[in-house]
Amino acid sequence: MNQNKKLLEVENLTLQFDTDEGRITAVDNVSFSVAPGEVLGLVGESGSGKSVTAKSLMKLNPGNAIYSPETKIKLHLEDRSVDIMQLKSSKEMLVARGGSISMIFQEPMASFAPAITIGDQMVEQLLIHTDYSVVKAKKYSIEMLDRVGISDPDQRFKQYAFELSGGMRQRAMIAMALSTKPKLLIADEPTTALDVTIQLQVIELMKDLVKEFGMGILFITHDLGVIAQTADRVAVMYLGKLIEQGPVRDVIRNPSHPYTQGLIAALPKLDDLDAPLVAVAGDIPSPLERPSGCVFHTRCPVHLGGQCRSMVPDFSSVATGHAVACHLIDVSNVQQQKVAVS
Amino acid sequence: MNDKIKTPLISTKDLSVHYPLRSTKLFGPPPVVKAVEGVSINIAPGSFFGLVGESGSGKTTLGRALLKAAPITRGDVIYDDGEVSFDLTNIEKQDLQEYRRRAQLIFQDPYAALSPRMTVRDIIAEPLEVMGITKSREETDRRVREIAAKCRLNLEHLRRFPHAFSGGQRQRISIARALVSNPKFVVADESVAALDVSIQADVLNLLKEIQKEMGLAFLFISHDLSVVAHVCDYVAVMYLGRLVETAPTRQLFSAPRHPYTKALLSAIPSLDPDDYGKAEKLEGEIPSPTNPPPGCKFQTRCRFAIDICRSQEPKLETEDGHDVACHRWRELMEA
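Above: the input entities. Below: the structure tokens describing the complete assembly.
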């Protein structure tokens, strides 16, 4: 991929939290990038650090968050590049918080203010981020509501979040996030709270909007099916580490990390009802007891023993743009690994 | 199906649950939410009965009604396990206590369902103590240990508090608590919805194992069709309080008859990225139960709806043990 065309580059993101029980490593040396018009899917279980990674891009993590000095989050805009880590005042932060980056959340009921109408909230952020007049902001907000498929946008504009259904609220959230014309949209589990039929509507809407606005999307979900249907590339996270990333077809059809393989095997599949459901053995360890070496070795069905327990695996490439952090994938081991897994 | 020959454990006839709302008008009767309307199902002993539908379809209310935890407005619910038989619409207080021992509920959210101030042992033992099933502390402890072992919890776990456990472990604790009174019928309401996929498979396998071992019947309520397909023997699909289709699992998934079931199946995100755009998209949302459309409740979103669908509500028709409520299912299957 062309280096110049990146929109977002995250390098060596390491994030720790100071808590009463000690210092917790939530994200450990994570690097990824998003190009304009590209959907990067970030998958992982709860506790894998996907959401805090997303929040780091807007520096929205709470006060006890400690970023390592190596962390770089570069946002390449048309006229300039900014390192979000270097932004200090809240005025400077505006570019990352709603200006060039917008975010939509899992539970839209919790992200809309309950006592302010949808319309007022949309207008307020437009007044902050653009030079629109109130009248123009209002007109544009109604246009956006219409664009995301909300019927009677004039009416909805005057309503409160609780008056809308779940699917409708998520559409309004998308309309609001896109009205400032962000370059990067962060979608944190945007369809998880929705029914499958509504989920499909929202996925198609988001795909259409990417085409129309040409922005990049960081799409966070635990659902591999949703990733398969939305993302161009996928990055798999486990316990704060990226363990595999690559083009979506490649990763889903030829998963190379034992964890990715386990995740795919654990999914109930409709085309084979007799296939037994195979769980990934054990539970995700508490972040207070982070395993040494490869973080997945405590649950790994094929781990090599000593090497996996003591050494953190580096990324090695298995196909074009498809990289895996696993000791089994060392070039010399590729053959053995195939045997071990099959 | 030989399920039909056995006496059903739970059988409902024309079961309805209506909730009156506060009157908005000065005169006239208050509006009524028909959460469940005219549902007739039979759940065979020892079976895994799936109930699917979108949020707002009434699946939770139906589950609660079968436990007599929601008011039954009309219709019959008969429980018959061979030892005792109850008519839930007309049950004595004493019988209801006995029914509570035989019918249990597993909740969706294992984080909210367990008291943070009780040890795991006390959480699991509480139903035994409250219902006065065991006579001595030793007996209680023995029962708790037995069921904990079945749910793959070890003795060490019993002394701890719930906060020390992960989601999957907590759900196993909830399951142990529900099963400790030795029920015959368990309602599992979205019991794996809050779990990660890697753990979900583990809990599903456990439920399946326990069901076979203890011979109990599950009503498995879920919005996730692929999960239902894997664990259930029989599936009922609900829409806006009505049953629209019920069939043995394989039959339902290989040849769905109702357009709504077809759309639900099609909307499950496929693991193959090249399937994008192939899913059949359902427009709109489930209508409000306070103001349901006339005729077939699905007609507002159904692309096959014709005049009769807008005026007349279809009845459940049975063919080859597969029920469907749709005016046009025959011609749609042929097409």
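Note for the figure: Chain B has twelve helices and 13 strands.
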